[in-house]
Write a structure and sequence with these properties.
Strand content of chain A: 15-25%
Helix content of chain B: 40-55%
Number of strands of chain B: 6
Structural class of chain B: alpha+beta
Shape of chain A: elongated
CATH topology of the largest domain in chain A: Alpha-Beta Plaits
Strand order of the largest sheet of chain A: 9-13-7-14
Order of helices and strands of chain B: EHEEHHEHEHEHHHH
Distance between the termini of chain B: 36 Å
Number of helices of chain A: 9
Bound molecules: iron/sulfur cluster
Number of helices of chain B: 9
Number of domains of chain A: 2
Strand content of chain B: 15-25%
Largest sheet of chain B: 5 strands, antiparallel
Radius of gyration of chain A: 23 Å
CATH class of the largest domain in chain A: Alpha Beta
CATH architecture of the largest domain in chain A: 2-Layer Sandwich
Helix content of chain A: 25-40%
Distance between the termini of chain A: 46 Å
Radius of gyration of chain B: 18 Å
CATH superfamily of the largest domain in chain A: BMC (bacterial microcompartment) domain
Strand order of the largest sheet of chain B: 3-2-4-1-5
Oligomer: heterodimer
């Protein structure tokens, strides 16, 4: 993302909306973007409303208001002069956008967004079967971000703990060695807003896999959020609850797949 | 695709947050699902959701790309589209969601969803005990469950509880810590209302799952408590 300095009037609204804190007001009193920290999430460009005011008019009004010790303060969700400008990005920077902007078409990198449908469609796909558990490990969100070298540590730890990575997940797609959980080396320094590592293991492996996640998380420079899923029995009860309680976890929020989905009729 | 698993807060803080979403399975039942997704959202509108959305176009609250002097300063600003427009605007397979701020509305909607028999996957993202209770009431046997185990790693890089409660209501992390903090600060200084501040934040959530009603309550609590 770039700032068109000819248009920018330095209102600083974009500074607060950037989830990565990548925007600041420079010595020329106009916005500047730290390209190494920018994850190409488009939050500033897409999320801010735009007013298209002539920059000279805004600057003049600001000048006059300053004389009366007043401030020009547009609504906090507006860029008054539409100064934020997307730029062409190429590989490997493309992975930033693919993992950070939730509405980007997946085709840009061959990857498929941040994650898959997980258990949201399990009633139709049967992806997490009886006796299995799904792990969803998300790095970087919210507002912290993660480099792929941090992701690489987590995927290695999960591989060592014996999980099977979800083949359709975009992180798996970017592994050069799926068995080892090795992320391809050319993207290790790329920063993203978040990515979701998805894997599966047998139910009895839950404590060991969660333990591996706890351990690797301690050495990371980012935050991790963890989700675990399983199928319910014919009464609607799930075997995970007791396993997690026995392992000492606190949990009360989650997603419940109601089982209303059906495969399409042939 | 929505991302609502890790909304931050203790059970008391999450008491007015229920997301019900429908999602077709790619390559299995996504053919001809558009009308079903529209039906899902149209039905949701009968139960007064506080937001509805679809992954491609967004929720009720949307940024405007063509503001000018007149539309910004001389007329009351429009902050989005009518809920009906979200429902009728679905034009491809994807996730559609409705957000409720009370359990009763969610339950009544589930009852209708069950009777509609759309054949696409429906999930509830909320306090699991509340969802289970609703399922019992409506006569639904849950198929699968996914629990949030919360944050690990460098949690000291996260923001305060109040900021996290607001920011995580966009599961993709598009509501920045700084924006949430700025809104809380402006409300405390009397320069912003919780009403407007929740609308501003909701516009950054591209799936329409930001709960503006809960956000208003949280910011009102912040204003009076510290
Ligand atoms: S919101 Fe627009 S005008 Fe204001 S500082 Fe950012 S780029 Fe400049
Ligand atoms: S694209 Fe995202 S990370 Fe980059 S400057 Fe804009 S809001 Fe910040």
């Amino acid at each position: 993302m770039l700032v068109d300095k000819a248009k920018c009037v330095g209102c600083a609204n974009c500074v607060s909306v950037c989830p990565m804190g990548a925007i600041h007001i420079g010595p020329d009193r106009k916005a500047e973007i730290n390209q190494d920290e920018c994850v190409e999430c488009y939050t500033c460009y897409r999320g801010l409303s735009t007013e298209h005011l002539p920059p000279f008019l805004v600057r003049s009004v600001r000048g006059v208001l300053r004389l009366f010790r007043l401030r020009f303060e547009p609504d906090p969700d507006v860029c008054p002069t539409a100064a934020l400008t997307p730029n062409e990005i190429t590989w490997p920077r493309l992975v930033r956008r693919a993992f950070s902007d939730p509405v980007v078409p997946h085709e840009s990198t061959g990857t498929k967004g941040r994650g898959t449908a997980e258990v949201k469609t399990n009633d139709v796909t049967g992806r997490v079967g009886p006796g299995q558990v799904g792990f969803v490990v998300e790095l970087g969100r919210p507002s912290v971000g993660a480099r792929f070298r941090e992701v690489d540590k987590v995927t290695h730890a999960l591989a060592d703990a014996g999980v099977t990575f979800e083949p359709n997940n975009p992180v798996t797609y970017l592994m050069s060695d799926v068995e080892a959980g090795q992320i391809r080396p050319d993207i290790l320094n790329e920063k993203i807003l978040s990515c979701i590592v998805e894997s599966k293991a047998p139910l009895e492996r839950v404590p060991a896999v969660l333990d591996a996640i706890e351990k690797v998380s301690k050495g990371l420079d980012t935050v991790v959020s963890v989700g675990v899923s399983s199928r319910c029995d014919s009464e609607g009860n799930d075997p995970l609850k007791k396993i997690l309680e026995d392992a000492g976890y606190t949990f009360y929020r989650g997603k419940v797949n109601l089982g209303l989905g059906k495969p399409a009729k042939a | 695709m929505t991302n609502t698993l890790h909304r931050y807060g203790n059970p008391e803080s999450l008491r007015d947050d229920y997301i019900v979403f429908a999602i077709p399975a790619r390559g299995i039942n996504d053919q001809g699902c558009v009308e079903k997704l529209r039906t899902f959202l149209r039905s949701a509108l009968k139960y007064n959701p506080v937001n509805v959305g679809e992954g491609a176009k967004g929720g009720i609250f949307r940024p405007s790309k063509s503001l000018n002097l007149i539309s910004t300063y001389l007329r009351p600003r429009k902050h989005g589209v009518a809920p009906q427009e979200v429902a009728e605007g679905v034009d491809g397979p994807g996730t559609v969601a409705a957000v409720f701020d009370n359990k009763e509305s969610m339950e009544r909607f589930l009852e209708e969803v069950k009777s509609l028999d759309l054949g696409i996957s429906v999930n509830v993202s909320a306090l699991v005990d509340d969802t289970r209770e609703a399922c019992r009431l409506v006569g639904i046997c849950p198929h699968s469950v996914e629990y949030s185990l919360g944050f690990r790693g460098r949690t000291e890089r996260l923001a305060s509880r109040r900021v996290l409660e607001l920011s995580t209501m966009c599961g993709h992390g598009m509501v920045s810590f700084r924006l949430a903090q700025k809104m809380i600060d402006q409300i405390k200084e009397g320069r912003q209302t919780p009403e407007k501040a929740s609308t501003f934040m909701a516009k950054f959530c591209t799936c329409g799952v930001f709960n503006v009603s809960r956000a208003r309550r949280l910011m009102e609590e912040a204003r009076v408590s510290d």
